[in-house]
Predict the 3D structure of the following.
Amino acid sequence: MTDFAQFIFSLFWYGVLILLPGAAFSVLLHFLLSLPMQRRDRARFFLDLLETALERGQAIEPAILSAAESRDRVMGVRFYLLAAHLENGARLGEALEKVPTFLPPQVNAMLRAGEKLGDLKKGLPACREALRVAPDTVRSTTHYMVAILLIFAPIACWLITLLSVYVVPRFKEVFAGMNVQLWPFTAFVLHLNDQHVLVYFEMLVFLALLTVATLYIGGPGFVRWFQFRNVPVVDGIAWWIPWKQKKLLRAFSAMLAVLLDGGVPEAEAVRLAGEATANEICRRRARRVIAALAQGAKLEDAIRKFDDTGEFHWRLTNATHAQGGFLNALRGWHAALDAKAFQQEEAATHITTSGLVILNGVVVALIAISMFGMLVMILRNMVEL
């Protein structure tokens, strides 16, 4: 075989063994990271479809069936499952209950609440509020964290395991043969290595990040698998995460404003707004507000039972005296809640990614310093001899 033919053969195997798997992994990574945005785009398209049908005076169910006849794959399989239930005679709310993962939980609950009121169009503004897209910085930072997880975290685990299993024991054998006294720091790192602490730590970090990435990519439909009926673990965690709490508060406030502008009685509006959040903690707080209303409290005072900070009370009090309806009066506050939520989410993501880089750097530094310490002791022992 000539040198040129051997070069071509080597180049071919280089492409097959490295470039093709790398390209396949890049395509898979792009597909996974785009899933949350695809779900959001499908929900926004569905809302556009509903709004167009309502503006033309058409019935919702035939409009959806007509759109399903296009067989467009962009809408996904769940849209056609929804259309199949409608074709079998189900109402929109019933079909949404049978296909709960087609739309985000909040949008699903808002549409069903609007159907119960007999005016689906009233809930569309609140649905669009819930589907507001995060800024590019938040999405790019989140995608960067997932990329670090899928690329660098497994490599870090593999390298540290390789050092702990093959490299460190060889150095220990050399030291045992030369009868050299170790530095205290090096002895400490070797003790950690003997107990596999560093390897377990990297694996724990990797599993934690893998869980976060799975929840992000899987979306609300996947998260609901971990929800218990009597113990709302997922809803409780969502309420105590600062940026998610602000988004839930915005969803409740937007739906409440829409219902109040539509002339719905206050108690019923609070109940439906609580249902629209698709969060059990919010439903319980809404029931406290309803109990306060039943005791004769004004809505702006009873709303204190929902928001512990008191800001909702202040905003709603001002909204009652404003012109143009509750939704217009509260729109600025909703935008502020969104901005704060996105800011907190971005900060948390940056802190997480930076912390992971620092932690991995500390682990690598511990191993490197201990290894160099061994080499220094070996060289010093050789000089003394």
Q: What stands out?
A: The mean pLDDT is 77. The longest helix spans residues 326-384.
